[in-house]
Give the backbone structure.
Amino acid sequence: MALPHMLNFEEELSQEETDRLIEKIATDVVRRRLETPAVMFLEMHKPLSFIASQALLVGTPALGALFGAETMSRYSGLLRRRENVEKLIQKIEQLSKEKDKSTAGASGEEGED
């Protein structure tokens, strides 16, 4: 008896899916003001990104109950390639700079009254 929907953990993420996941993660990090610790963590563990992707696969039965098996599969696919971690770091830094500029612009406007 076959399951109606099997997750394919071997399938590569499309470029659009990769970009969407990176944008979502980076936005969440910047919104929570965790840019510095997140970038430090990612830089330190970049060489281990493939191992982390495999750990997510091993943990899918437990983590999948909380976050969904498909979500775990997508994040595993994202971490499988080290260049995606670098793209995530760059996106976090870009969004952080944009947030700082908008904050500085808003505070500068208030002082002119």
Residues 15-102 form one domain. Residues 1-5 have pLDDT under 50 and may be disordered.
